[in-house]
């Protein structure tokens, strides 16, 4: 399995791109502004998009992807998400006001967008990958994902505060090599992190105490203003854990 990090920032500006990961060459995990890093030919290869939740930094480029490839693909792009997330996308994005409804374009019988409901705990197989929706706790309905291949696995928390069920699910995973874990705010903004159901270093490290495995912990979703400070706090206070900072352009093999 090969995961290319197209975007992993909690904001934009300069080189910062928001959350979007490419699994192999045809599967996206979220579709934030990092999706713009792909060439036109690479965009044409996308067949599946697994969405953690409907906040803009995770779906901003999904409408543009569909608009870009609509005249060149003969098969739809399949968007997998929970029923609640798909309802938000239908109601607030693909509603003919913010963006056309690509689930009926260019025609109802051959639309470029296909929605597939993916309940929490459900697993989909795409090629050699088994993708499972994991529990998460955010301000809107959200999930994380477990990506499992023949030789190893990787987990992504999505946007989430402390979620015991997430760690419970991971503690039973064999050959888990990486956990991509969000930490959006520094400790000085711990109250903002709490009310927005994100992590700050203190709450993230406390939550990590629920995990019994030894996977490498890759930190994502850092806000640009305090990204360096947040990582300093994590490395100082979490010395017992194998932390590193997820980087745009990084390729993870598992």
What would you say this structure looks like, in words?
One of its GO terms (molecular function) is 3',5'-cyclic-GMP phosphodiesterase activity. InterPro entries: Metallo-B-lactamas (IPR001279), Pdiesterase2 (IPR000396), RibonucZ/Hydroxyglut_hydro (IPR036866). One of its GO terms (biological process) is cAMP catabolic process. The structure is a single chain. Helix content is 23%, strand content 26%. The chain contains 8 helices and 14 strands. With 254 residues, the protein is α/β, with parallel strands linked by helices. The chain is globular and about 55 Å long. A hairpin with a 3-residue loop joins strand 2 (20-23) and strand 3 (27-29). It has one domain (2-246): Ribonuclease Z/Hydroxyacylglutathione hydrolase-like (Metallo-beta-lactamase, Chain A), CATH 3.60.15.10. The longest helix has 11 residues, at 227-237. The mean pLDDT is 98. Strands 6-5-4-3-2-1-14 form a 7-stranded mixed beta sheet.
Question: Quick recap of the structure?
Answer:
With 254 residues, the chain is α/β, with parallel strands linked by helices. The chain has helices spanning 40-44, 56-59, 62-69, 83-92, 164-170, 190-195, 201-208, 227-237, and strands at residues 2-7, 20-23, 27-29, 48-50, 77-81, 113-117, 123-126, 129-135, 143-148, 153-156, 176-182, 216-220, 243-245, 251-253. It starts with a strand and ends with a strand.
Quick one: how many beta strands?
A: 14
CATH class division: Alpha Beta
Q: Per the principal axes of the C-alpha atoms, what is the gross shape? A: globular
Our count of helices gives 8
Poorly predicted residue ranges: none
Number of domains: 1
Helix content: 10-25%
| Alpha-carbon distance between the two ends | 5 Å
N to C succession of SSEs: EEEHEHHEHEEEEEHEHHEHEE
**Estimated radius of gyration:** 17 Å
Largest sheet: 7 strands, mixed
CATH topology: Metallo-beta-lactamase, Chain A
Domain Metallo-beta-lactamase: 17-210
GO molecular function: 3',5'-cyclic-AMP phosphodiesterase activity; 3',5'-cyclic-GMP phosphodiesterase activity
Pfam families: Lactamase_B_2 (PF12706)
InterPro entries: Metallo-B-lactamas, Pdiesterase2, RibonucZ/Hydroxyglut_hydro
């Amino acid at each position: 399995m090969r995961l290319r990090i197209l975007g992993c920032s909690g904001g934009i500006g300069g080189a910062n791109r928001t959350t979007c990961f490419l699994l192999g060459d045809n599967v996206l995990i979220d579709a934030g502004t990092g999706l713009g890093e792909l060439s036109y030919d690479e965009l044409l290869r996308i067949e599946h998009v697994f969405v953690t939740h409907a906040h803009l930094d995770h779906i901003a480029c999904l409408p543009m992807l569909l608009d870009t490839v609509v005249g060149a693909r003969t098969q739809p792009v399949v968007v997998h998400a929970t029923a609640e997330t798909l309802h938000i996308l239908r109601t607030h994005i693909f509603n003919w006001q913010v963006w056309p409804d690509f689930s009926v374009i260019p025609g109802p019988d051959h639309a470029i967008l296909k929605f597939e409901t993916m309940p929490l705990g459900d697993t989909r197989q795409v090629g050699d990958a088994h993708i499972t929706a994991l529990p998460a706790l955010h301000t809107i309905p959200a999930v994380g994902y477990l990506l499992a291949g023949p030789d190893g696995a990787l987990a992504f928390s999505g946007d989430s505060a402390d979620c015991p069920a997430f760690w419970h699910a991971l503690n039973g995973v064999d050959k888990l090599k990486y956990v991509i874990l969000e930490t959006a705010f520094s400790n000085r903004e711990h109250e903002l992190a709490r009310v927005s159901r994100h992590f700050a270093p203190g709450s993230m490290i406390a939550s990590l105490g629920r995990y019994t495995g030894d996977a490498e912990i890759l930190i994502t979703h850092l806000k640009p203003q305090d990204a360096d400070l947040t990582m300093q706090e994590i490395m100082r206070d979490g010395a017992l854990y194998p932390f590193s900072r997820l980087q745009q352009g990084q390729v993870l093999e598992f």
